[in-house]
Amino acid sequence: MGTTTPPRTLAEALRARDDESLAGLLRARPDLLSPVPGDITQLATRAGTRASVVRALEHLDRFALQAAEALAVAPDPAPYDTLLGLLTGDGQDDGEQRDDVGTAITEALPGALGTLREQALVWGDDDRLRLVRTARELLSPSPQHPSPTGLGPTVAEATAGMSPGRLQEILAAAGLPATHDPVSAVAALTGLFTDRARMGELLDTAPTEALAVLDRLVWGPPYGEVTPNPTAPVKWLRDRGLLLPVSTRTVVLPREAALHLRAGRAHRTPEPRPPAVVAVAERDPQAVDSAAAGQAFLAVSTVEELLKHWNGGGPAVLRAGGLSVRELRKTATALDVTEPAAAFWVELAYAAGLLASDGEADERYAPTPASDEWLEAPAQERWVTLATAWLTATRTSGLVGGQDAKGRALSALGPDLDRSAAPEVRHRVLALLDALPAGTAPDPESVLARLRWERPLRGAAAAEGTTDLRSRIALWTLNESEFLGITGRGALAGQTRALLTEGPAKAAGLLAPLLPEPLDHVLLQADLTAVAPGPLERPLADMLGTLADVESKGGATVYRFTPGSVRRALDAGQTAADLHAFLATHSRTPVPQPLSYLIDDVARRHGHLRIGAASSYVRCDDETVLGEILADKRSVALRLRRIAPTVLAARADPASLLDGLREMGYAPAAESADGDVLITRAGAHRTPPRSAPVPVPEGPPVPDTTLLGAAVRAIRAGDDAATVVHAQKDTATATPPGALPRTTAAETLVTVQAAAMTGSAVWIGYVNAEGAASQRVIAPVRVEGGYVTAYDHTADEIRTYPLHRITGVAELAE
């Protein structure tokens, strides 16, 4: 009395859970919600499918996974003490298993087992723990899929096909009494291997070389190859069943013998505690914030320069999508960064929705209309936009230059750079940095070790020590954080902490005082250079970028004035007077005389030659100048001829003719059909409105509380409809469990009308328009016109059902 029957199946175990526990299962394994299971049995079936179990195992931390692996090699079912013993050992391993580790395992195991139970990978009470069958198959040992614990099959499994005569030979060699019953023989051999005293006596008689063979197999893999004529040590082990045949050339160390040699431990190194993130430096938090702010400003400036570089239309889109290696190299040169860094900035601008393809026939990359709004925003808000896009983007620039599964090169902006794990890894890395004291820079290797503990590799990748994608993304995250100003000198910045916890507005507010104020002046020097001692206001920077070439960058930017740069400003519609006034207004030093002479000299010659379309022509009032051009050997490629004393005709198009004469040292100007000088401003090419690329999610999204509550109610209602005891007048015609109720149309109508009058719930069978049958629990509200309107407990909403589609109805038992 007062005892409860232990669950016999996973479905019964789930049915015994409360709603909060079921919601926790669906939150931990959201793939079970697609679509919402009809009842508990369907939920249990789906939770045991291979794809779902694999996904659940991949999200376990190392110790929870080790607990699951220990259960996979334990008897089924296994008591809690057996599981604990497989993780701690029996204490007879010469002190290899330290007492503090054993204590940590004892303390951590209830939590790990709770995780496995919550995710429906383990069910049953502590005295009868059962690992879900699919998980046991995935984690159990076999020659094709060695166990992660390094243990082989049991004696019973390894001797399943062995002849009785061979079993008798093994018993005799091991000093066990003969028995003609194979089951008894296997039990006797198993009992020997699990008896520490007798097993110790047997191994004391083993040759030293035989013990060396066991040492090589004990921690796995437990399989070894033998020749038709094995050596004496191997023969000694094989004769006594310490090595059992798997095939003609393969033997295996049975699990029971291996556990004796391991002192009862399933794992060589249990890891109940996560490794700590080690600090390599502790710096002043203010210095960290300032360094990160400097990088943040540089990041914003770099993206701004990229947009300016592609302002008139960027590089062409490859036929397969993405940016060519040559164009990436040119972009890296223009930004004065390495090619991997250029790929990062290009991908970041794309993820933020600032760059996209224009979709034209000759498809090219170009800034989007959103980039103009971004450029007008304050620097701190621009940084927040970039940082937020980086945190959520699944596109992974670190893959650029590598190859996909088919051996094809991965290009920047290409279609194959999405990795769904990237956002989660970035947030996890930053969370580990956030947990450190302010100003603390971590050791990258300790960060990777912590991430591997939280999401360990399984199978062959773990055995080979393969660097998994998550570890590579973590390393890229640490590097990209420095590029972007997320961290400063290796430590997480204060503005980033605010971005992660308090939102963009708070982060922008903290960053703003740390950014340099834009300047409205430069320092002109006599060597035809201008020094900008800091960031310039946008109109000043744009005009100076047209009038001069950037010679060097850094804390101060150096611009150099050349005839070509001055001509560029004149081509953009400026006059010499405009340029003189601009320099005088914005220079804190007097305008040097050489610079004034340069502007006047270029302006005097600017437009002296006129270019038009004939294909094209050159017009000049000075016949001598045209004669000099014709006499110059460099003009041969232009194929010029004089058609009038002041006019030369050319077969080249006007743009090529302009470039050719400029290379010869002249300063021609283009003119319109009316003879007016054409102002050649750099045309701003924009894509149509584009939205930022949508991140590719890693599996189904985690449902919110509202959806979880509705899903649990629907599953409960469906389970009630499938398992509830239905009241039937005639027990001889009672509906079998799980079958649809069957009643006549008249009985159905009378029953639902009575339920509507009394407000009670009934159980119905229903066939929809597609022919799919289901069971439902409804509370009828109104019955008229051949329809019943009722609250459907299964769907948790009011629905209307045609009476002719109801197969039958039954009252629910009290």
Short description:
By secondary structure, this protein is of the alpha+beta class.
Give the DSSP E fraction (strand runs of 2 or more residues): 5-15%
Q: Write down the Rg.
A: 39 Å
Number of helices: 34
- What share of residues is helical? 40-55%
Task: Describe how the helices and strands are arranged.
Layout: H1 10-15, H2 19-28, H3 40-47, H4 50-58, H5 62-73, H6 80-88, H7 99-118, E1 122-123, E2 130-131, H8 133-139, H9 155-158, H10 164-173, H11 182-193, H12 196-204, H13 208-217, E3 223-225, H14 232-239, E4 244-245, E5 250-252, H15 255-261, E6 279-282, H16 285-309, H17 325-335, H18 339-351, E7 355-357, E8 365-367, H19 369-376, H20 379-392, H21 422-434, E9 440-442, H22 444-454, H23 460-464, H24 469-484, E10 487-488, E11 491-492, H25 494-501, H26 504-511, E12 523-525, E13 529-532, H27 538-547, E14 549-552, E15 557-560, H28 563-571, H29 576-586, H30 593-605, E16 610-612, E17 616-619, H31 623-631, E18 640-644, E19 647-650, H32 654-663, E20 669-670, H33 705-723, E21 726-727, H34 745-758, E22 762-767, E23 773-784, E24 787-792, E25 797-802, E26 806-812
Helix pairs in contact: 2-33, 5-7, 5-8, 10-11, 13-14, 16-18, 16-20, 17-18, 20-26, 21-24, 22-24, 25-26, 28-30
